[in-house]
Amino acid sequence: MAQPLHPTHPLQDNSSTAGRTPSVLLWAGAAIGGGLVLGALALWLHYGTQMFFEMIRAGFAACF
User: Fold this and answer.
1) How far apart are CA 27 and CA 53, in angstroms?
2) Alpha-carbon span 20 to 31, nearest angstrom
3) Which end of the chain has fewer CB atoms < 10 Å from its terminal CB, N or C?
4) Residue 2: pLDDT above 80?
């Protein structure tokens, strides 16, 4: 009789790093997002509101 291609009971990962990967990815994403926010804030403080929005407007105009 033919055997099924996939087991009826999925294999379990009992390694010590099994549950860490989603947590590490979450923290890495939060760190990157925080860095982007801090970078935008630093540009805003350095160049001022008018120049900051002009740079964003120019970027959108270049894309579309």
Assistant:
1) 30
2) 16
3) N
4) no
